[in-house]
Amino acid sequence: MKIILTGYMGSGKTAVGMELATQTHLNYLDLDDEISRREMKTISKIFEDSGEIYFRKRESEVLKELLEQENNFILSLGGGTPCYGKNLQEIKNTQNATTIYLKTSLAELTQRLIKEREQRPLIQHLGSREILEDFIRKHLFERSFYYSQSDVIVNTDEKSIPVIVEEIIAALN
């Protein structure tokens, strides 16, 4: 079984993925971490040095390699991963893969991401809460088509990580 977590940045993919891996005894992988390891640079540095187009190309290559692995795992995608190139189709064509969308409201995402701007290359330049909220709103509108094609949708607002993980496990059984 390959469990693929998708959702906007700040939706909890990493934290939920790590806890889900603990509960299910599956290996946990984070696509951004995997790209960073292979490039020997942070995601911010990859964006700075090579730009988003290079990053998205590399992201697709690494995703494809991971999906072709025989072993089972939990994989947290980057927020934009399913929206670029053929990534969503690659995921959907992967045998024994289940996609789970961690659906988080605009208000909740804004609240979480305003505190994390400096660590997020796509939003670190956004100066105010209002500008950040507009940016997220636009992305959610564009990306919801891709996210909503997930096999399972879990609303995350006002839920703890253990509760979200419990809902995912119940949906998988």
CATH level-1 class: Alpha Beta
CATH superfamily: P-loop containing nucleotide triphosphate hydrolases
CATH T-level fold name: Rossmann fold
Please give the CATH architecture. Answer: 3-Layer(aba) Sandwich
Describe the biggest sheet?
5 strands, parallel
Q: How many domain units? A: 1
Overall form: globular
Q: What is the CA-based Rg, rounded? A: 15 Å
**DSSP E strands, number:** 5
Average the pLDDT over all residues and give the rounded result. 93
Question: Which key features would you list for this structure?
Answer:
single chain; 173 residues; alpha/beta; Rossmann fold; five-stranded parallel sheet; 7 helices; 14% strand; globular
Fold and architecture overview:
- The chain is an alpha/beta fold.
- It is 53% helix and 14% strand.
- The chain has a single domain (2-172), classed as P-loop containing nucleotide triphosphate hydrolases (Rossmann fold, 3-Layer(aba) Sandwich), CATH 3.40.50.
- The chain has helices spanning 13-24, 31-39, 43-67, 87-92, 106-114, 129-147, 161-172, and strands spanning 2-6, 27-30, 73-76, 97-103, 152-155.
- It has a five-stranded parallel beta sheet with strand order 2-3-1-4-5.
- The mean pLDDT is 93.
